[in-house]
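ARCHIVE RECORD
Type: protein–small molecule complex
Small molecule: flavin mononucleotide
Source of inputs: curated submission
Record status: active
Notes field left blank by submitter.
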Amino acid sequence: MSEQLAAEDVAHDAEFPELIEGLQTRRSGHNFDPEEDISDETLEALIEDAAIAPSSYNLQPWEFVAVQDDERLDEVVELAYGQEHIRDAGTAILVVGHTNAKTADAVFEDWVDAGRMDEETAQQTKAQTAEMYDDDGMGRDYAIRNASLAAENLMLSAHARGLTATPMIGFDQEGIAEFLGLPDDEIPVMLLAVGPSGGEEPDRLPRRSVDEILHRESY
Ligand SMILES: Cc1cc2nc3c(=O)[nH]c(=O)nc-3n(C[C@H](O)[C@H](O)[C@H](O)COP(=O)(O)O)c2cc1C
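STRUCTURE (tokenized, with ligand):
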């Protein structure tokens, strides 16, 4: 028998109930107020909140391209196969992911400066990370995993500020990369339509139950 004592099961009530309420009430809205846009301060606050998302080794392999000019928004609507709510939202933000560890030099210096890694470990980890990113397909996986978390943060921050942020992948990936001038080693991960709500949205569609999706110990 194991000598390890069994940990006690403890119920954890929400310490931040408003955070739970926020994620339970967030919606992908299609009804935006076309008369009202977001301020520069709000845009910057959303990006700040997005950038606090976790990322592999804190590499923060993401960029955000915000389009607010009316004519350019029209182009984005066209590239998104006519999704008109983007125009009404007033702001489209493309969340972009790095497919390589291009931030590694600066980030691993942070680990060393913070006393969380010695120089040798930092150099080794940096080399391993670069290798992993270079592995065929892995760079794309990293880009999507990391940038998707930033996108979710941005959506929750928008909701907390009384805004709607709708995630989309229904767009011409290559077309938008070209239109927005993305570098070759970065990919579009999620397009967000962000703006003040224009009113009611249809009821949320049901979610699959916990019983159905929670698998204990193995699938
Ligand atoms: C990866 C992904 C792609 C999506 N693509 C689109 C899209 O192209 N257009 C759109 O209007 N909504 C899109 N959505 C929003 C979903 O339709 C929405 O999240 C889902 O219906 C659940 O609704 P809720 O977010 O309001 O709970 C997308 C969501 C995700 C996560």
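CURATOR ANNOTATION: The radius of gyration is 20 Å.
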